[in-house]
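Researcher: Please predict.
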Amino acid sequence: MPNINPSKLNAFTAQILKAAGAKQDYAEVVAAHLVDANLAGHDSHGVIRTPYYVRSIEKGELHPSAEPEIVQETASMAQICGNWTFGQVIAKQATELAIAKASDQGVGLVSMYHEGHTGRLGTYAEMGAEAGMASMIWDGCLGGPRSIVVPLNGTGRKIGANPIAMGFPSETYGVVFLDFATSISAAGKVMVAVDKGEQLPGEWIVDADWQPTSDPTQLAKGGALRPMGLPYVGHKGYALAMMVGLFTMMASLRSDNEPPSEDRWGTVILMIDISRFGPLEVFRRQVDTIIDFVKTDPLDGEVLYPGEIEARTRRERANGIHLPDATWREITTCAQELGLTSPR
């Protein structure tokens, strides 16, 4: 399992994406996002995705130099058509626009559609918190080729993993945020288990016969992810997935009255200016007080606040990111096919 310097991994990933046709600034945005996901401990959304993006470019599914465009806009809202470029590029632009609108209007909501994979939603919640915003982000689909979750008591890949994220700033603890799929696991975590040659820790997925399994290879063989909460409260994950899907279907709604299609995938980013309710510095200190309160008197182990694991993992991985041998092999093979040499 190689240990790669984050800066070198960032530069190498950007080189691969540029060689595959991405504009330089796009390649840098996406590479930084992927490596940051690894640094935060979310290898499922890190550089493991690089070969997938390259294949998507080669297939014409991802347009690495397309310009996102604002198709509708008001003082507090906007809708962006991404023209099928990198989701991270569009989402960064959308988040910055939502923050600017919230700063001006108190609330900023920006939706986006016709986008590539948006990556780790927590990144955009962190951006908002660093700007003094509270945030909510929805990302997903209902139907179409990107759906990978089987409905509760159903069959077929009919719902997306449909993640949600929220974020708040604090005074000393950094960003307090959540970011998780409404399925038991994100598909990327299943990909990581395959690369590590490990079984899943539970029956996160179903096989092609819709039977629960812990074998991660079954997902690529026609299986599907299961809703969050199974086996006991799967109705909650299923219902959340449906509602997130409706939010994001709204995000991809167009004015030409076209019927729902297989590209009804979207993202909604909501930013709220905390200072409109009172002094931001007071809120930050109050968040610290709440965290201190919940951490006291642990029963077993340690009480963690949402986002604490990511903060710790960043410190631990600052000098090197361990990648599974299979992941590194796939990335270097992809680079070699593009005429690049792997970093030492």
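Model: The two ends are 14 Å apart (CA to CA).
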